[in-house]
Design goal:
Number of helices: 7
Helix content: over 70%
Largest sheet: none
Order of helices and strands: HHHHHHH
Structural class: mainly alpha
Oligomer: single chain
Length: 220
């Protein structure tokens, strides 16, 4: 069912300050590998990003139709789910970056074989996502998200141990659990954050989900 249309003016100041704020932090993350954490350009980007985000908060408090209503963050099911989605993105992409390096440089796999092993995680995510939706409906979003997050935590430990012991079996098991954990947790976290907000803010909640997850991905 479609939500009601609302005739509001675009929050241009909110768009600009949010873009500069997130962009500054993403620029710092993207460049820190090349120039080092103490480079002046990194800290300049962080400063610009932080100032722009502080200005974004001020703008959103004063505008009649904010891009992201700040009162939504007072809703625990919204704010907790947003934070969890960011952490999920970080863990998923962090492992995605590290696992191929291990397979190529430590285990000596070819690029083709490495791609085949990495597909295991994607397959598990695809298969388990519908199960995550059913699990959330049966036991509740909080419980389903907690189960998924717990499995992700175990998978990260397994990947760390696999790199230390050079164990392909543990690496594959870690990738399987990564896909499973994300598939079980993401549907419930998304549902929790969108169902926590008033109907007219469903689009805002969905966009905030995506933004938080992508920030986590960049950090990972």
């Amino acid at each position: 069912r479609e939500t009601k249309r609302h005739a509001v003016r675009l929050d241009v100041a909110g768009v600009v300050t949010l873009a500069v704020g997130v962009g500054g932090l993403m620029l710092a993350l993207g460049r820190v590998r090349d120039v080092g954490v103490f480079a002046p350009s990194i800290w300049a980007a962080v400063l610009v990003g932080a100032l722009a985000l502080a200005l974004f908060v001020r703008v959103e408090r004063r505008t009649a139709a904010p891009l992201l209503p700040l009162e939504l963050f007072r809703l625990r099911n919204f704010s907790a789910a947003i934070a969890s989605l960011a952490c999920n993105g970080g863990s998923y992409m962090g492992a995605f970056a590290i696992a191929p390096m291990l397979l190529l440089n430590v285990f000596g796999y070819s690029v083709t074989a490495t791609s085949g092993v990495m597909l295991i995680r994607t397959t598990m995510l695809t298969v388990s996502s519908p199960l995550g939706g059913r699990l959330g409906a049966r036991v509740g979003e909080r419980a389903a998200a907690a189960v998924g997050a717990g499995i992700i935590a175990v998978s990260l430990v397994l990947l760390a141990v696999a790199s230390l012991r050079v164990s392909l079996e543990l690496l594959v098991l870690g990738l399987v659990l990564q896909g499973l954990g994300h598939g079980l947790s993401i549907p419930s976290l998304t549902s929790a954050s969108t169902s926590a907000v008033p109907e007219e803010h469903l689009g805002v909640a969905a966009a905030a989900n995506r933004l938080a997850n992508q920030i986590g991905v960049a950090f990972g």
